[in-house]
Specification:
Layout (H helix, E strand, L loop, with lengths): L7 H20 L4 H5 L11 H9 L24 H6 L12 H5 L2 E9 L2 E8 L6 E5 L6 E6 L9 E4 L4 E5 L5 E5 H13 L7 E4 L13 E4 L3 H4 L7 E5 L2 E5 L5 E11 L4 E13 L3 E10 L5 E9 L6 E9 L2 E2 L4 E5 L4 E6 L4 E6 L7 E4 L10 H34 L1
Parallel strand pairs: 4-8, 9-13
Antiparallel strand pairs: 1-2, 2-3, 3-4, 5-6, 6-7, 7-9, 10-11, 11-12, 12-13, 14-15, 15-16, 16-17, 16-18, 19-20, 20-21
């Protein structure tokens, strides 16, 4: 592996170029070679795009970087140029591995960012309390989990940074709201403890050890079952001071809640507005982004992830209008089944996690959406997901009936 020593002034120049290159790489723009020509030739004797690609694959080796040297390497077998020079605030989505969730017998569902770190909700098929698994946003390293006070499916999670509140989908159409300042304080205290071994476990049920947990759950009136009969909250997303909630079954619904938070009274008052009852079925995740055109016109978009156990996954893009949602502005079919929660970064990267098989997260750029006519693959996937969305409530009703009969007999 070839190594090159670089003085401080050259390093600063190259670092700027690498940041620019990585930005273009994320946005799907082909200006790598143009930027590469500006870097001092004595420092680069290899293809810089290959370096950046290998950076994306080096997530499990971030801690092996030698902090005492600046190395530019062609092979990048154990270190990465971009890791060393770029120090991005977020890990690339290809790095993020959440296999430990499945190894512990839990099923990943919701996905969000909390102050730059990654949070993944997961439920237990064995009836254990659901969890929020936490990962370092710079390294992807697993840090610990938060045990919730219920066994819900927890299909969605989102974070209100202004109020420092976590919203997590619960059971029977409810959304649970947590005072995250209490949770983060507990995490910080564990990390400062002499007993801390690199990972933590926060149990919100343990109110005797930590009396603050008595105030962690904020009361709210967010209840889809009352607003839309027989529909549960599948996922949620906080965007522009509103909480958006969507459903999974049948023709999907999208509801926006205006929120009034009173932490002293431990209450949140939510006023709902139904944005649409025409979302496609089988929605697992939603994410929003804002776009400003060259003419100055501003638009808001929603991307929905759809999946089921019997087919490929899918992303669909819609514009949010004054009257609801536009016609679909593009579809991307994903071969891997089980796409769940998604989020969109400022540079247009859609990342998400999978329930089945894959334990590396999705990485797709917004530029990959096309307004072209639906392909046969897209139509076939649409039909399959719509069918699964319609079957789900029937399946759940049968399961509830069996459980009721079992309970009566015992």
């Amino acid at each position: 592996m070839k190594e090159i020593d670089i003085d401080t002034s050259s390093f600063n120049s190259i670092k700027t170029k690498i940041i620019d290159m990585t930005s273009y790489y994320y946005k799907g723009k082909s200006k790598i070679n143009e930027l590469q020509s500006d870097i001092p030739k004595e420092a680069l004797n290899y293809n810089i795009e290959e370096v950046i690609q290998k950076y994306h694959q080096a997530g499990n080796k971030l801690e092996e970087v030698n902090n005492n040297a600046i190395k530019l390497a062609a092979a990048l077998g154990d270190t990465s140029l971009a890791i060393k020079l770029n120090q991005l605030s977020q890990i690339t989505v290809e790095m993020f591995d959440y296999n430990n969730i499945k190894e512990e017998g839990f099923t990943p569902q919701g996905y969000t960012l909390i102050n730059g770190n990654i949070a993944v909700t997961a439920y237990s098929k064995e009836g254990k309390n659901s969890r929020i698994y936490m990962y370092n946003g710079k390294t992807g390293k697993y840090e610990g989990y938060i045990e919730l006070t219920n066994t819900a499916h927890v299909g969605g999670i989102t974070y209100d940074k202004k109020e420092n509140i976590l919203y997590v989908t619960g059971s029977n159409g409810k959304i649970n709201s947590y005072n995250y300042s209490i949770i983060s304080k507990a995490i910080d205290e564990i990390k400062k403890s002499s007993h801390y071994k690199g990972q933590y476990m926060i149990n919100l049920n343990d109110q005797q050890t930590n009396s603050d947990f008595r105030n962690v759950l904020l009361s709210n009136n967010i209840d889809l079952d009352e607003l839309i009969n027989n529909k549960d909250a599948a996922t949620c997303y906080y965007y522009k001071d509103k909480l958006y909630v969507s459903t999974y079954t049948g023709s999907g619904s999208l509801i926006a809640y205006d929120l009034t938070v009173d932490k002293k009274k431990k209450t949140i008052t939510a006023n709902p507005t139904i944005i649409s009852n025409d979302l496609p079925g089988a929605v697992q995740g939603i994410a929003f982004y804002h776009e400003k055109s060259q003419t100055g016109k501003e638009k808001d978009y929603i991307v929905v992830s759809r999946s089921g156990a019997l087919s490929r996954s899918e992303l669909k893009k819609y514009e949010i209008t004054d009257t609801g949602l536009s016609e679909c502005k593009g579809t991307i079919v994903i071969e891997q089944k089980g796409l769940e929660g998604i989020t969109i970064t400022e540079d247009g990267m859609i990342s998400g996690i999978f329930e089945y098989g894959n334990t590396k997260s999705l990485g797709i750029n917004l530029s990959e959406f096309s307004n072209s006519q639906s392909s046969i693959d897209e139509k076939a996937t649409d039909i399959s997901l719509k069918t699964q969305g319609n079957i789900w409530p029937i399946k759940e009703e049968i399961k509830r009936t069996i459980q009721a009969i079992f309970s009566e007999n015992n």
